[in-house]
Specification:
single chain, about 750 residues, alpha+beta, two-stranded antiparallel sheet, 32 helices, 15 strands, about 55% helix, globular
């Protein structure tokens, strides 16, 4: 082949795929953004490499992993066809795993089987951990196409960049975060892309129907992946209703909406976690209601009626809808909104539910949390709202509703900031491009551009355009380059790091021993404890622990637990709180209601702070730091105290052993420490925590003095393994997590209480 022929071939290829300078730049920028998104999310692997095992992050991902593992071994639909009950969780009744959302574990199991078939040798937990990074990066790619449809390729690139570096989304798509938010955000974004394209009047009806089916599949994936799918359903319903109110109805709206919602719900309700009752749940009613509105709009559009007749038709339709709902409510077919969803709509409702309020991600985010999430880009977000309002196309109307509702729910519950992140990214991108456009236009003009005002002509030099662009870039740089001061575990000093870097550089929870800090090296207290339970305890041994650690113990530790993060049985969690906050005698009376042969151990997690002090008789003091159960016991008191009437009626709470919240166990001192009273020092939680502190002090050979607790002694609990208590003393002090496992001495208890 001659050089001319080769050159002509390249030109022909370029024309076919429109490869010009602009396309190459956009493609290169998008690849770079996706690489940044992937790199930031995989940063926690730095703590995983030394152990040779990549773990999952937080607690819930281990539940998803157990489902995935079961599917890999027994088939994708096996948890549902087998009606799998996991008896290692929620002893003695077990946990019905067939009630689980299938989207994420099915996706992971299917992809894992494909990679295994292709000869890729990787263990399942590592695969699931890495899959979170891949799906998070894929979400950034999808939002590029959404932004491109809304405002061009530049908007798409900035939207992808903002989502790639959004702190809330990084936290929920980084290495190991194998949880429901992954299929949720991915499904939400793909649904938005497909749904809005199906509404585009410039597309043919055939193409529009294809996009409607794609939107339905994406929405079904969302519904079967995350309970927050109610948001997407009602977001679409509200958007379509607003279009009708603004007199933008056409028949395609009815067809596309009907296909999308009908097919999505039809697919989703086939799974037990969703079920047919989903169709009569309160959040789905607006979806059905809007479909009725569309039918009425179609009827009115097709028939030439007077205004009076149209009003009568609308009133009749509303009356029929209300009459149809009344019997559903009366006979109990209409499901109520779950408590957590009511709590999202009205955060005040959360204050009355200690179990919901005890979870950090369920709390109302502070202004500081919102600032860390939004940063200086809140300026672009606000400007984006202005430009979107200024041009109210159908897509912009959707984006306005998406942004407003996303902001409300994100400000209501910290976990839902992940849903607000895509809306924020899109609006901020539109704001940036809207601000840059006039400056870029001026740069293309003659050296001195002329701007016409109401009173006179102004001559604007290109230098002002360059200054404006630089100012925007500086604000954008501060958005990603700086972050509030962080606490470093090793030196307890503060350091400034980029926002995205700090969000992605947090180690997995188990590699930081459950502490919300960044250690200089992996902390092995929890992994050592779980290795111990794997090696020395039986699978049927029940380890009593606060519900936070249930998944770790059952999945990684291979023992049986009373409760975990599924929180399917509030009463059992109340009982757990009672066990820790009551006396040893009352705690074992409660645990005796289970099988003593199986309930053999109790576990507690604490963080100790050791520091040198000249006035100490030994030179060092040790005290609890508040990052373990020594900080969570307040919720144990509140949750169990909320069940005071039930526990009293059952004979567990007595006049000398009762409470409603933490105030019965002491008070907060002037310097912020908790001062335990006699009742507090007689609780199981206090005795276990103090036992760990004194064991650590003794292990140092008397070099450390316990500062904050008294050695009250244990009567029926014997320490078996205190993971972390053997840590060597540092000359500068240290923060030391300790996981304590104690054996229950049932023989002694039964001898002391023969008639219990």
């Amino acid at each position: 082949m001659s050089n001319d022929q080769f050159s002509n071939g390249l030109k022909s290829f370029g024309k076919r795929f429109k490869l010009n300078r602009s396309t190459v730049f956009v493609f290169s920028a998008l690849i770079l953004i996706l690489m940044v998104a992937f790199t930031v999310r995989i940063l926690p692997i730095r703590w995983e490499i030394p152990s040779g095992q990549i773990h999952l992050n937080e607690y819930d991902p281990y539940y998803q992993y157990s489902l995935t593992n079961y599917m890999v071994k027994n088939g994708l639909f096996s948890p549902y066809t087998d009606h799998w009950i996991n008896y290692q969780q929620w002893y003695p009744n077990g946990l019905d795993m067939s009630r689980s959302y299938p989207a994420l574990p099915m996706t992971a199991a299917a992809l894992y089987q494909v990679t295994s078939f292709l000869g890729v040798n990787i263990d399942l937990m590592t695969f699931c951990s890495l899959l979170a990074v891949v799906l998070g990066t894929l979400s950034c790619l999808i939002i590029y196409f959404i932004g491109k449809d809304m405002g061009g390729r530049a908007v798409g690139l900035f939207a992808a960049l903002f989502l790639a570096l959004a702190p809330s989304f990084i936290q929920r798509s980084s290495l190991g975060f194998f949880d429901t938010e992954l299929p949720g955000i991915l499904g939400l974004l793909f649904f938005i892309l497909m749904f809005l394209r199906s509404m585009d009047p410039k597309r043919s009806l055939r193409v529009s129907l294809i996009y409607s089916i794609g939107a339905a599949l994406a929405l079904a994936y969302f519904i079967t992946g995350w309970g927050a799918a109610y948001y997407a359903l009602d977001l679409a319903a509200l958007f379509v209703f607003v279009l009708v109110v603004l007199k933008r109805y056409d028949r395609r709206l009815l067809i596309n909406y009907g296909i999308t919602m009908g097919l999505a719900l039809l697919i989703a309700i086939q799974f037990p976690q969703v079920g047919y009752s989903y169709l009569t749940s309160a959040p789905v009613l607006p979806v059905i209601g809007v479909f009725i509105v569309l039918l009425v709009a179609e009827f009115l559009q097709r028939h030439n009626m007077s205004v009076k007749t149209k009003m009568h038709a609308v009133i009749a339709a509303i009356s029929v809808a209300i009459i149809g709902i009344i019997p559903l409510v009366y006979f109990g077919y209409l499901g109520n909104v779950a408590g957590k969803f009511i709590a999202v709509i009205s955060p005040v409702a959360r204050a009355d539910n200690a179990l919901i309020a005890s979870v950090a991600e369920h709390r109302v985010p502070s202004w500081g949390n919102l600032y860390v999430e939004l940063g200086m880009a809140v300026i672009f977000f606000t400007v984006g709202l202005y430009f979107t309002l200024k041009k109210p196309t159908n897509r912009n109307i959707f984006l306005l509703i998406f942004g407003a509702t996303g902001l409300y729910f994100g400000a209501s519950m910290a976990r839902l900031l992940a849903i607000f992140a895509p809306a924020f990214a899109l609006l901020a991108a539109i704001g940036i491009i809207g601000l840059l456009k006039p400056f870029m236009s001026l740069l293309k003009e003659t050296p001195t551009a002329v701007l016409k005002t109401k009173r006179k002509l102004l001559r604007v030099d290109k230098g002002y355009s360059i200054l404006g662009i630089l100012l925007i870039l500086i604000i954008l740089m501060t958005q990603f380059a700086f972050n509030p001061l962080q606490f470093a575990l090793s030196s307890q000093q503060t350091s400034v790091t980029p926002r995205a870097y700090s969000s992605g550089y947090m180690p997995t929870s188990i590699s930081s021993a459950g502490l919300p800090l960044v250690p200089p090296e992996p902390l092995t207290q929890w992994t050592n404890m779980l290795t111990y339970t794997n090696n020395y305890l039986k699978t049927t041994d029940v380890v009593v622990a606060w519900w936070d650690y249930g998944y770790w113990l059952s999945v990684m530790g291979n023992v049986t637990t009373l409760a975990d993060n599924a929180t399917v049985d509030a009463e059992q969690i109340e009982n757990l709180g009672f066990v820790y906050m009551s006396t040893e005698e009352k705690a074992l009376a409660m645990l005796s209601t289970y099988d003593q042969k199986n309930v053999q151990y109790i576990l507690v997690f604490t963080s100790l702070y050791v520091f040198p002090y000249d006035e100490s008789p030994t030179g060092y003091y040790v005290m609890s730091y508040g990052l373990g159960d020594e900080g969570k016991w307040i919720w144990m008191a509140r949750i169990s105290g909320g069940a005071k009437d039930r526990l009293t009626n059952e004979g567990f709470m007595t006049p000398d052993n009762t409470w409603t919240d933490e105030k019965s166990f002491g008070k907060s001192s002037d310097y912020g420490r908790w001062e335990w009273n006699d009742q507090g020092m007689n609780t199981v939680i206090y005795k276990l925590l103090s036992s760990i502190e004194y064991n650590y002090a003794n292990n140092t050979g008397g070099l450390v003095t316990v500062l904050d607790m008294e050695d009250v002694g244990l009567q029926y609990f014997e320490p078996v393994y205190l993971s972390g208590a053997e840590k060597q003393l540092s000359p500068y002090g240290d923060l030391i997590p300790v996981v304590g496992l104690f054996k229950i001495n049932w023989a002694k208890y039964n001898a002391d209480h023969p008639n219990h």
